[in-house]
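README: folding subset

This subset contains proteins for which both the sequence and a predicted structure token string are available. Records are stored as plain text. Below is the entry for Molybdenum ABC transporter, periplasmic molybdenum-binding protein (255 residues), shown exactly as it appears on disk.
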Amino acid sequence: MKLTHSLLCAVIALSPLSVSAKEKLRVYAASSLTNVVNELASQFESQHGIDVTTVFAGSSSLARQLTNGAPADLFISANEKWMTYLVESNVVAGDAVTNLVENKLVLVAPTGSAESFELTDSSQWQRALGKGRLAIGMPNAVPAGIYAKQSLEHMGVWSLLNKQLAPTNNVRIALTLVERQEAPLAVVYQTDAMLSDKVVTLAVFPEQTHDPIVYPLATLNEKEATLEFARYLRSESAIKVFGKYGFDSGNVRAD
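--- output ---
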């Protein structure tokens, strides 16, 4: 049977091949946001019918990828330095950046370790490390490592410890080294420590000893889906999810 031109057009119009694909978003985010952003992305997908692809790595690595043209719609950094870098590189517009959440820095050891630690006590650091190394994000690039170096310098123990470092490309790797007992100590975010039952928190680094641990969010285009996801991340429901994972949203107003 031959199809008339009008009938053929109708068949094509109704064909599954003609149905437009779901709109897609690509979100680049710091490694320490892996669990919370994946949960929020899943919720957003189910509510808005928009596919969200998440890419996690160290903030420095992601920022460099973006300057080289990596396709992303939103970026969440683990510190302001790398967001400033993107603004100064004309990759991100200054008015497209807003602070999202905050975090704390902690010292962790394998579960079963003594749960008391004086961060300014050089002899205690030496006993705890022994011949092992302190797992830490690379202090010249990875935000967690940058904050850790600032704090340890402030407390007068950096010159001792920088000879026994195990620098990592992101904070999650530092956590993993302690979980596997390949390092006796690690400096990680409070939110990372909360996710693991294989580590114990020995001490919280005083906030006044390092720059504020702020996670700025940037929208990289004006697509409606991009702006909608950015609004969602600042919503009351999203703030509750951030809080569940240990992030502080106290200074963030819900949209």
